[in-house]
Amino acid sequence: MFRLYGQDSAVSSLTNAMHDGAIHHAYLFFGPTHIGKRTLAIQLAQALNCDEPNVPCGNCGSCMRILKGTHPDVISISVNPEAEPPEPRTQIGIQAV
What is the pLDDT of residues 74-91, one digit of tens each? Predict the structure, then answer.
């Protein structure tokens, strides 16, 4: 289902939650940079919104809009401590949530 390597525990937990119908209303993906957090979050959103029977297909309208960041039901909030001032953030504010 998910195409991500090295995150077996997270992938297993999310796969089981989907199969059991126990998906939560929000998830927080955190950890070091470049370990697949954003990739897994996008694939989870695609799997939950995919229009095809084998999810996530990655090619239907919903999957493509999620990948482009234009799907109306999927919101990604992130911090960017490397951005130039006054934009750097190390915390997510309540207004963003």
Answer: 988 877 767 766 666 677
Measured between alpha carbons, how far is 11 from 4 in angstroms, rounded to an integer?
Answer: 8
Which tokens go with 5? 């390597």
Taking the C-alpha atoms of 80, 85, 86 and 91 in order, what is their torsion angle to the nearest 10 degrees? 30
In whole angstroms, what is the distance from residue 5 CA to residue 31 CA? Answer: 15
What does the alpha-carbon distance between residue 20 and residue 16 come to, in Å, rounded to a whole number? 6
Q: Which pLDDT does position 78 carry in this prediction? A: 78
Taking the CB of residue 4, how many other CB atoms lie within 10 A of it? 17
Contact 46, 61 (CB under 8 A): no
Question: pTM for the full model?
Answer: 0.81
